[in-house]
Design brief:
- The structure is a homodimer of 350-residue chains.
- Chain A has 350 residues and is mainly beta.
- Chain A has one domain: 5 Propeller (Tachylectin-2, Chain A), CATH 2.115.10.20.
- The first copy, chain A, is built from two helices and 26 strands.
- In chain A, strands 19, 20, 21, 22 and 23 form a five-stranded antiparallel beta sheet that branches. Chain A has a four-stranded antiparallel beta sheet with strand order 1-26-25-24.
- In chain A, a hairpin with a 5-residue loop joins strand 6 and strand 7.
- Chains A and B meet through strand 13, strand 14, strand 17 and strand 18 of A and strand 13, strand 14, strand 17 and strand 18 of B.
């Protein structure tokens, strides 16, 4: 598989972004949803900001308050044995596998480009936490365009769980909030860009507790707001590149051979790669083929080194002729782009 | 709170039920959904059957196969350290908190009564596992009647997770399967019996993994099949009777003061009680009041002793005037009924 990484990579890094919050630093500008609007490519960046701490013994946890519409900061003593600080992204409750707080707060901020390589960052937030389900932030947006409406959906993170919420916009200036469309625990939702036999479809990625794994499901809808007929789609594959967790990546791409979904798979040791699954054009709950080996693995410096290393994680792509321009977050830190040949990807799916 | 337990309790026990599967024993007839049909009270029992094992070193796990439409039995060595057998209901994967198999398989079987105390058990199953999401069985049905249609929904258990699926019937003889309406991990769904301001509503109980607890949420729908606008409704209360897990019980009861939901709460040491929450008539996402102490606690012998002890767990009730006839499973084994005064319950909710 030929993978052409842009010479300009990483295209956007945290240092390109002025913090939205006073006293915070930007630690990530990554996992962006992608749209084409008004002749420009728009990246809906997940921007993660962290309170600057001058005391190495204090870990600061930012929490949005819907009552005050402000972010409050909770100080936690790094020596407090009730908490486990080994994962830099979260403050875990020791021994439970659950997190109590995140170490940063994410929101959606826009970057715009004429050429797809050089981006200008908007001032301020576009979609910012606004309710009790978003108090720990909103993460990993995807964008599906249907007609002149862009549906932007993202993980809504709060102490009651991680679900998927949605807004819509026609102008990337104002938006309407549609609430939570998939209840916890769920993320990595991808809404298909058109109805199929009269129904909307979405991929989603529940994380069940009592039994089951972080795997990909498919659901259907009449109106994009209410979802049902949930069916398990693809699972983890023991000993392969995607035996740890999987989830949808880019919005499904309609091809002659089927719906092409670029999805991420992590191994048990948390190397995140991108691969593909091909779904039946008329019934996307039918799997035609799936990548035996990943299409893109973390190899470049900016993919291997960062806040959370060895991650390539796409939330959106643009297709022009035979070229897939896959935008992707790298190492939970920055944004990059790589081009793949659509026909080569389809040929790789036997 | 006066609680009048029927003298005939337990009303239905495993010994009343002829096994549906050859070589199995019935270990539970409990957690029944309740409906009134044709002048009779119908209990949609969860019947749990276990393969009879003549070797105490072998634990048998029944698994339904959609391909053969039969139950296959997997033998597991009780000395196999990969598994933990300490919870009699499940075969856990040691150290993970997840189960690999259940020790019994459940399906829905009907019991019918003219007087609500003496029941006749139907031959055979009514709703039986039928697809890949139900291979470990279907559990804890509830029934909402809307017009002349009875919607019966239940936990669908399989290796890919525990979700909530639904069928509908008009005659308790044949039914239509509507697939999974809430994706894993979710159970304890309760659909309100009428539209409220143009929308259907349901309570549901996700179990998130990364953060959050088994708590009650509310969702809305246009058609009962597709659900959205998920909102967190009520949570656990530290140090109280419901600080371990909570979930909806009976179908919400419309009263002058609001929608009355009889829900179950378990303490951290797994004592399951029944309490109540009162929701706004026009907007059931608004909580008016909630039981400070439980309405019914496991006290009778048949509630305290059984397959899983100290459990009262209602999935349905019938209201006649000021009397709530609350049917409930006891100790994960049998069915009982207790009468409560509706006005006393409402008065207890300040």
């Amino acid at each position: 598989m030929r993978v052409y990484r842009y010479e300009e990579n990483p295209l956007i890094t945290p240092s390109d972004i002025k913090p939205y919050h006073d006293g915070f630093e930007v630690i990530g500008a990554f996992n962006a949803g992608v749209a084409e609007y008004n002749g420009e490519i728009i990246l809906a960046l997940r921007v993660a900001e962290r309170p600057i701490s001058d005391d190495p013994n204090i870990v600061k946890a930012p929490v949005y308050s819907p009552e005050t519409n402000k972010v409050e900061i909770i100080d936690i003593d790094r020596n407090d044995s009730r908490y486990d600080f080994s994962d830099p992204r979260v403050i875990e409750i020791s021994g439970t596998g659950q997190f109590a707080y995140l170490t940063s707060i994410s929101y959606v901020r826009l970057a715009r480009s004429k050429d797809g390589r050089n981006f200008t960052i908007d001032d301020g937030a576009f979609v910012y936490p606004s309710n009790e389900h978003e108090t720990f932030g909103i993460e990993d947006p995807r964008i599906t365009q249907i007609g002149d409406t862009y549906y932007i959906y993202f993980s809504a993170v709060s102490p009651v769980g991680v679900g998927e919420s949605m807004v819509s916009t026609k102008d990337f200036n104002t938006y309407e909030h549609h609430g939570m469309i998939f209840s916890p625990e769920n993320k990595d939702v991808l809404i298909f860009p058109e109805k199929i036999n009269g129904k909307y479809y979405a991929l989603h990625r529940p994380v069940p507790k009592a039994t089951g794994s972080p795997e990909m499901w498919i659901a259907e809808s009449d109106n994009l707001l209410y979802w049902g007929n949930h069916r398990h789609l693809i699972g983890l594959r023991e000993g392969m590149w995607d035996d740890g967790r999987i989830g949808g990546g880019a919005v499904p791409i309609k091809t002659e051979k089927g719906w092409l979904e670029l999805y991420h798979g992590a191994s048990k040791d948390n190397r995140y790669c991108m691969g593909a699954v091909l779904l039946d054009l008329d019934d996307p709950s039918k799997v035609i083929a799936r990548s035996e080996t990943p299409l893109v693995v973390p190899e470049a410096d900016y993919e291997v080194e960062g806040f959370f290393s060895k991650v390539v994680f796409s939330c959106g792509a643009i297709v022009e002729g035979d070229t897939i321009k896959m935008y992707y977050g790298v190492a939970d830190t920055s944004m990059a782009c790589a081009e793949l040949s659509l026909s080569e990807v389809l040929d790789s799916l036997k």
